[in-house]
Every structure is written in C-alpha cells, then in structure tokens.
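User: Please predict structures.

Assistant: First:
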Amino acid sequence: MGDKITSAGALFPDAAIDQVRGKQFVLWQGSQAQVVPAAEYGGHTYIPAALSPSLEKVLHLPAAIEDFRSLEGLIGELSEGVTSCDVGLDQHATLLVAAGIAATWVTDCVPCPLVINLWGDVGVENTLLDFMGCVCRRALRLVEPSLRELSGLPTGLTPTLILTRPSKPVLSRLVMAASGHFFARGEVINLQSPIIVYTSQPVQVPAMSIPLPPATHAVRRITKLEAQKIVDRFQPRLLDYRLKNYQEVTNAQFDVPGFCPEVRQVARVLGAVVQGSASLQASITDALRGLNEQRKGERSQTAAAVILEALLAASHGQAPRAYVGAICDLANGFLEDRDETTRLSPKAVGEILRQELGLVPRRRALGYELALDVGTQRRVHHLAVAHDVLELVAGCPRCQEMAVAIPRDSQPALGI
C-alpha cells in the first residue's frame, strides 16, 4: 500500500475514479465500473474527500453509475430537459446549452473550461438555472465567491460555478483563474471550473452567449422533489459518459478554423465533448454560426479593426513602411466616410498597435514607423481575417496565402 491521497476524483491513462454519494468512488478500469470505498493506482491509495453533509447535498453527487447508451440520445434528452424549462430558446440555443451541460462533466479534458453566459430580463433565468444546477457536474450556486474560498475545496472536485449577476471584477478574476493556475495559501491551484453566469446584459469576458427571450408567461421554479428526480435521472448517466469518454474527449482534434477566435474556442470545446458523433459536431457548428457572425460584426467595428483596414491599404499599396501618424489619418478617414463621430489620436493608434495587435512601431526621425515587411504583412492579414475586415486583393501575395488558408465558405470576396 502506497501513500494515501485524498481526492474527489482523478483521471489516469487507463483508469479513472470519481467520488459519488456516501463517500465512495466509482472506479473505472478495463471497461468495467465498480463502487469502492478507496482505490489503488500507481502505488498510491486514493481516499474519497470528506465532504460535509450540506456540501454533498448541494453538489448533487450521483449515487451510482448507469449506461448513458449513446451521445445522440444523451444530448437529445438534455435538450428535451432544457426545452421543458419553457424559457423559449430556439433549437440552436437549446443544443448549445445541452452540449454545454455535458461539457461540465469533462472540463478537465477540454482545451479550456467553458463559460456560458445566459442573459436577459431578470426572472426568466430561474427555471433554466434550476435545471442546470441539477444536471451540471457538481454545481455550486454561489454569491461573489473569492479565489481563496474556492482554493479550499477538495482536490479533484472541479465544481461547476453558477453565478447570478456577479460584479465585473469577481467574474473577470474567476474566468482568468479557471483558465490557468493561481497561488493561494502558498500552493499552486488549478481550479478548472466551468462557469455559468446569468446577467441582464452580455458579459464582456469570452463566453458562449445565450440570450434569453422575454418572459411571456409566469416563470415556474423546479420543486425539490422534481429536482431530485432530475438528478437521479441524469447524473448517473452523465457520470458514465465522463468515465467512458474522457480519453476520446482529451484526444479530440475538432476545430472550425473559419470562426473568429472566441467562438472557435467554444466550438473546439463543444466539438470535443461530442467526439465520435460527426452529426452532433456538424449541428453544433451550425448552431454557433449566429454567435460567430455577431462576434465578427462586433470586432469589425472596433478601433483595432479600422486601424487594420488602414494597414491593409498601406500594404496593398506596396508601401515599405507606414508611420503611425499616416495610419491614424487613414483610419480617421474611414471613420469619417462611415459618418462615425469617433476620432483616433496618434497616441491611441500607437497603443492599439502595441497592446492589441502585437505590432511595434520604431521611433525614427520622422516619427514612429512600422516596417511593412513580409512578416508584418502576414500578421496584418491574419488579424484582418480575425476582425472580419479583409477583402482579398488580386495580385497581393499575402491575400493569396490567406485564400489558401481560409476555408472556402468563410472566404471574403475577391476585390480588384
């Protein structure tokens, strides 16, 4: 018997353990599952974490494990559960929420923890949050949690954090902490928690944005008895999904290169969640197109996008360099042509070039100069695609490169 390690769960190359109700583990090994009081692996003895009765109850730990049967069936039933909340989500949004619920069960296997932002009129979110609290993995509904408090949770717990109208600083810190490591009480903590956040307006952090339609009828809450039935129906099957699929999810290579960076990351996560089902991956991609177009539209109207348009004009004019002052004049000209009242200063343009676009002008006798060498031109073109402002120009080598790299259905029109 080796060292004793207290944990709420762990994934290994050929086995996995996950804590269930009653301070026990489900041990998954050799395609077989069994409930055990402790587990041996790699010369260590794993002991279930000591959870207070109140915490165990709030987490809705499953009591056992049950065959989830198929990805399509599981996602379909989750979608039906979302629909039963009667919040008026369309088919695409319902699928995204259902896949997002499944993502909370493999958050330690996907590229990054998912952030789901439900937003709309106050009150319309209640039933859906009740349902998600029953089916998301180890859901914790919290008010303004601190990183110090979260760092005290047992190793391997990786709860789903459900927040209602948190302050912007708290949400920003949690999103940053969930995506990496942070120090707390002299230890390195890896939170890895998915976040579901309800707000009245869309959040300003990267998230899968789900607008909630205005309520046209009385909003019903899920009762305790109904909640327990939902827990008992879904949790054992979602646990089975986690233990059977974590390796496939970890090794998934799903990607949608034509999406803007923020939505592309969401697609990578949700596509990995349903790895093995090409039809679900295609449906998720279709469901995300609306969010992608929205994000691209938002990015194309930023100051950074206008500056990129100015840099493209200089690059397509075969200028060897561009001065910050000239870039500023071009950008302001574009804004004036669009009847925009905003105007940029050379100082603001310089800061955006450095801090947002990663382009560093050099001080010269005539001002700050940005060399438009091949490397810089490539970066400008790539950034222009991400901000949805690239118009392919015939005869431009960089545009020809982008035409090869961009998926055909995402290519901008070819200009003259």
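Second:
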Amino acid sequence: MKVDVKVPVLAESVTEATLITWHKQQGETVKRGDNLIDIETDKVTLEIVALNNGVLEEVLKGNGETVNSDEIIAHIETEAAAEKPIEQKSAPENNQQPLPAEEATPPDEVKLSPAVRNLLNEHHLDTSVVPISSSDGRMTKEDVLNYLNSQKPLQPTTPSEPPISSEPQPSKVAEPTPVARAETESIKKPVPATTLPSSQGSNESVSGGNRSEKRVAMTRLRQRTAERLLSAQHENAILTTFNEVNMKPVMGLRKQYKDKFEKEYGVKLGFMSFFTRAATEALKKFPVVNASVDEKDIVYHSYFDIGIAVSTPRGLVVPVLRDADSLSLAEIESSIAEYGQKARESKLTMEDLTGGTFTITNGGTFGSLLSTPIINPPQSAILGMHKIQERPMAVNGEVVILPMMYLALSYDHRIVDGQEAVKFLVTIKDMLEDPARLLLQI
C-alpha cells in the first residue's frame, strides 16, 4: 500500500516551509519513527518522521525546495517492507541470517538533532569520526565544533590575520559562524582564482593569496526575523527609556539560597526569574504595557505570557512562559532551562513560540552594557537587561561601589505614554532593589 508523506499542518501565521535535508534516500528501507527529513519554517525546525514501515518509493520534493502546509512530498510503499528481507537472502555472510527490516538499524546508532545533522552534512563528516562527550550517546553541536577546530588547516595563518575565536559573537550577526571561519581558514592555501562548488546554498570564491569570501543563503528563520524587526520599526512609534538598578540585594539573596534552591528544585537560581516576576507585577500596575494594537483598537490582555528571547545558531527565537504570574521562581527557572535546551537542539514547537504579551531580552549574557531592544510585534513593549558592572554610586552622601545594571524599556508610543513607561521601569527597579516586594506583591 502506498502511504503519503506530508508536510505537517503549520501554524496559522506560517504559510510556507523549506526542506532542509533528506535523511533517507529514494528506494531506502525506513522504519516507523525514522526521521525522513528536516524542514524549516519561519519560527522552528521540524522533523518529518515515517508513520509506517516500508520503502521510500518516491521523493517528490528535494532539498531546499519550498513547500506548503499539508503538501505531499514523498510516498512510502508499505508492502515492500515484507519483501525486502527475502531479496537479501541471496548472499548471507559467515552463515549469518540477515536481520529483518525492522532490526536493520545498528543498536549503537548515534542520536542526532537536526542542527547537528545539518552541520555534519555541511562538512561531509561521518558520525564515527566525531568524539561524543555526553554519556547518553547523543552527539551535540559542541562535539562537532570541537572536532572541526581540532583539525589543522592546510596552511598556517599569517601573523597579520586575526585569531579564530571559538566563542560565538552575537554582536556581529552578519559574519560567518566560528565553524564557517574554520572552514574558510582551511582553504587559505594560495591557489589560482577559482570558485568552489556550492554546498546547501553557499558559494565560496577564492581569488588567491589569503583573501577569500563566502556567500551563505539566509535561513528562513533569519529572513523572517529580519522582516519582523524591520516591520516593527516601520509600523510602531518606538521610544526607549532607561534606568539603572542596584543588583546587590538580589545577588545577596541568590548567594544565600542558591545551594538550597538547587538542592530542593533541581535547577539553578538565576536572575531571569526575578526579572520575570518583577515585570509581571509591574504589568499588573500598568496594563497598557501588556496590551497590543489591532488596527484602531487597543487590546488589553488579562493574562501575562512573557516571551524570553533566546539566541540560537539558526537565529533569534522567543519561547513564551504562559501565565507567568502564577509561576514560582523555581517553575520559571525550570521552564527557561527547558526552553534553552530545546532551542539548542532545534526542538522548539510552534506552541512554544506562539503568542506572548511582553518580552524580556538579556544582552548582558554577551557583555552588552547598554542597548535599545526592538519591540516584538504585536506587543507594545520589551525589557532589555544588561551586564552587571561595579560602579561608584552616591549613597547617603558617600561614594559606594555597587553592582549596577542598566535597564532599557522600548515601547510603542502610540498607546504607551512616556509617564507610564517611566513609572513601569521604576516599579521594576524598586522591586529588584527590595526583593521582599516580590513576595508581598507591593
């Protein structure tokens, strides 16, 4: 029986997706649950798995093609699953009986996420050559990066060239990733002018000497992010107000209870849970900051779904904490940790990224001292956290060194007045400088 392989039903706001990599080839035996292909939407990377045992009889759409929701991209012939073992009996080796199709997968098969598969395919690597650091047999992106960085380039770099950093540089989004730079370094041997063959939308030209360029197509996720950010700037009257907060009270509370907290709840006590709770309480006092614009109407939300901006190798995503006002600090930290892990493994779902009434972004994790975040439409405001830095402050007529953080609130001036925005940010500041207010909700 022929079974259709279809694109999953996408979110209402997502009309198209891009096929990234077929992991099964036409004519290959597949088992129920096998990952057939990864697809990328405007928001997430998804896996399409086989729903039946059989043979991938026909592939209708290839890598890189654009597909629509519920579109048929391949066919699986289920009757071929029973015929496949019979064909393999013609030449058994060492008097061993061939395994049936359901047992053809090696028991020690390496577990791979879509992001890791894409990286292995891009650099034509086999899983057997990459050392695995995890105890559960899952290969991570860091394992592949470490292996690539350990390979010596064909020619050493000259002293005039900048060193290759293994750390991600979020402030330079348009530059190649460390992996792409390592790949570029490996081909910097002087050669005549030529063009290397393209690989998955990239085209690298070497003009001789040590000068090279690499052109890489933007992912659908990054394209969509760029469109939304430009749209936010064009369609909203964005204004940013700043303040600074003394982080010493929160840092002292965290230092005092972090070990007991982690032992009790199995998750570390970070700063994001304090900011999420403080923002939620401030939103209750200033509902317009939690509202959105719908044409000529202002939509006020009685719930508090807080988006937490997360940077991933494929672009920026904003998973949402539902009903954040009802979550404890431990539940907030657990949810953020889970979202971070899913983001790194490209496992976030549409449900994880849909909605949100207010967003928090933390540029301080990358060392940012001050920035003006852009609103995440259709929300009306976004809170920017930054690096904690010790600075001399005047306290009761004396100069005291305190750990300070700049806060930035970008808001849509069409519906949020400056007075409300400033008071909202001051409310967050007051709660963080006196954490007892978070417990008392005052």
